[in-house]
Amino acid sequence: MSAPTGVIVGYDGSTHAVRALDWALEEAELRACPLVLCHVWRERSGDPAPAAARRTAAVHMLDHGARCAADRARGVPVRTLLLEGSPAGRLRGLSARAELLVVGSHGLGALARLTAALAVGSVSQRVAADSRCPVIVVRGAGGPRHANASPRLDDTPPPPPGATLPLVVGVSAAPGSRAALGFAAEEARMRGRALHLVHACRPGETEIGRDLLDAAAASPGMEGLTVRSSLVVASVRSALLAESRAGALLVVGAPRGRGGPHLPYGSALRGLLHEAPGPMAVVRPLNV
């Protein structure tokens, strides 16, 4: 299979996939690269429809997505890719040859229809944890929102209502944090947005947290960006969920290994994928 280049978006015709398509088109435009619209179909045991009919339906769905993309593309080259097999496995394979992978938070599967208001879909979660390129999981504005913000240790006020929302990035000592910071800085520069660096810690670790935030703000790639920092005494999950309510995109580091328990924040990444109120980028550490 030839190597796709540019931005890849997983598309299955769902409302979440259409939102992902819009985000992916903007990413491709900002990066001046092609967009690959990918649909993965597979035979299902017990499905009365013959494989040929299922494939024909998949072709029609992908054609519809391509027409939607063409109407919104504004000069972005768009091509389609139809594959058979496991959606998560196929998308992970493509991610090794992509700049960015964009997926919706849920697809059209039966489980997704039952749990769309509760959690991220299984395909999106597996792709985010295991892909070789950055992954953006596009969640709608109706995601869970936590009413109680975590206590701050800085005196920087949050953005006023109506202000252009910043990109929120989790900062830690984990290997994925540096990669997440670099991706967030690139996104902020392309979009003309500020960066909000957030570190969560225990009460006795505030000095270490301040050092991490200072180092992140002074790291290569921050030049010319508007950067503010928040040190929050709370769990990583609670802190990032609270701070991301006032952000356009939440950016975090990916697991070191494939899925499973090797998460840079323990179970926090899984919780964030399930509960983030808006779009979330997961960035894998370099050379992992």
Question: Which descriptors would you attach to this protein?
Answer:
alpha/beta; Rossmann fold; 2 domains; 9 helices; 288 residues; 19% strand
Helix-strand sequence: EHEHEHEHHEEHEHEHEHE
- The CATH class of the largest domain turns out to be Alpha Beta
Mean pLDDT: 82
| Biggest sheet: strand arrangement | 3-2-1-4-5-10-9-6-7-8
Tell me, briefly, the overall form.
Answer: globular
Secondary-structure-derived class: alpha/beta
Helicity level: 25-40%
User: How many runs of DSSP E, i.e. beta strands?
Assistant: 10
Give a written overview of the molecule:
The chain has 288 residues and is an alpha/beta fold. It is 38% helix and 19% strand. The protein has nine helices and ten strands. The chain has a ten-stranded mixed β-sheet with strand order 3-2-1-4-5-10-9-6-7-8, with helices on both faces. Helix 2 links the parallel strand 2 and strand 3. About 12% of the residues have low confidence.
How do the helices and strands line up, and which of them pair or pack?
Layout: E1 7-10, H1 15-31, E2 35-41, H2 51-72, E3 78-84, H3 87-95, E4 100-104, H4 110-115, H5 122-130, E5 135-138, E6 167-170, H6 175-191, E7 195-201, H7 206-217, E8 227-233, H8 236-244, E9 249-253, H9 268-275, E10 280-283
Parallel strand pairs: 1-2, 1-4, 2-3, 4-5, 6-7, 6-9, 7-8, 9-10
Antiparallel strand pairs: 5-10
